[in-house]
Amino acid sequence: MLDYTAPEQLLKNRVILITGAGDGIGRAAALDCARLGATVILLGRTIEKLEAVYDDIERAGHGQPAIYPLDLSTATDENYIELAQVLEGEFGSLDGLVHNASILGQRTPISNYESRTWQLVMQVNVTAPFMMTQALLPLLETSNDASIIFTSSSVGAQGKAYWGAYSVSKFATEGMAQVLSEETENTSKIRVNIINPGATRTNMRAQAYPGEDPGLNLAPEDIMPTYQYLLGPDSTGVTGQRFNAQEMSK
Ligand code: NDP
């Protein structure tokens, strides 16, 4: 959805949490949401990276963000309950939740895949977003216009050799988003949608395609219109949909 143009201050008065906000697409989304007026909660595992994004937002003169360090590979139910309590205490409500953080795992045949790596990928990419969503649903319910975004991939809709747990985790992510969107459709104002970012110039892309010229791919900043649309009021009532961030709207 490259052709959406966000009005200035689209996200004013919205509190938006982004996972994996220290780098790549999450970093770009954090800066962009802050530029459009949101209060952004930067969640991730590497504090220095989160601090650098925090500083960039402050330097640009946008609203003060918050940093929430959390390692999704080890976080427990108690950690997510605490997250919900802290957010409720600090902000009172939550209007946007962007499940962006993921890991790639191994690029190897299933026959060769290490089960420990498999479990780690499923933990970070699937189980952590499930636990976080469950803990934050009550807070999202307090918003008049809450939006949850799950991040998939082309290999989350069509399996591909050697993509192992990552591909399977993205199928699971899409399933989770579909289940949750049906469960909330008639009972809640929360909308739940999926973004497939498409090939984007980040560390993960370089790790997956080491021989590729990074200049061939769009930068994270270029794919922000779909995030803007889904986090702002123009998508109110849109739920259970899958968006390719690098396509035009139909
Ligand atoms: P990056 O690897 O550049 O960034 C991933 C972010 O997730 C980093 O900030 C990373 O933190 C964070 N993260 C990883 N593990 C954990 C953890 N255990 N706890 C907390 N945070 C963690 O990836 P991209 O920006 O490329 O990808 C963003 C999303 O887009 C992912 O869901 C990915 O699957 C998806 N995607 C990306 C595509 C692309 O071409 N780039 C294509 C299709 C989908 P840290 O920096 O500290 O490691």
Quick overview:
This protein is an alpha/beta fold and 250 residues long. The chain has helices at 24-35, 47-59, 77-91, 115-141, 164-185, 203-208, 224-231, and strands at 15-19, 39-44, 66-69, 96-99, 147-151, 191-196, 242-244.
Which key phrases capture this entry?
250 residues; alpha/beta; Rossmann fold; 7-stranded parallel sheet; 41% helix; globular; binds NADPH dihydro-nicotinamide-adenine-dinucleotide phosphate
Question: Can you characterise this structure?
Answer:
The chain has 250 residues and is of the alpha/beta class. It has one domain (15-247): NAD(P)-binding Rossmann-like Domain (Rossmann fold, 3-Layer(aba) Sandwich), CATH 3.40.50.720. 41% of the residues lie in helices and 13% in strands. It is built from 7 helices and 7 strands. The chain has helices at 24-35, 47-59, 77-91, 115-141, 164-185, 203-208, 224-231; strands at residues 15-19, 39-44, 66-69, 96-99, 147-151, 191-196, 242-244. It has a 7-stranded parallel beta sheet with strand order 3-2-1-4-5-6-7, with helices on both faces. The model has no long low-confidence stretch (mean pLDDT 98). Residues 20, 22-26, 44-46, 49, 71-73, 100-103, 124, 151, 153, 197, 199-200, 202-205 line the site of NADPH dihydro-nicotinamide-adenine-dinucleotide phosphate (NDP).
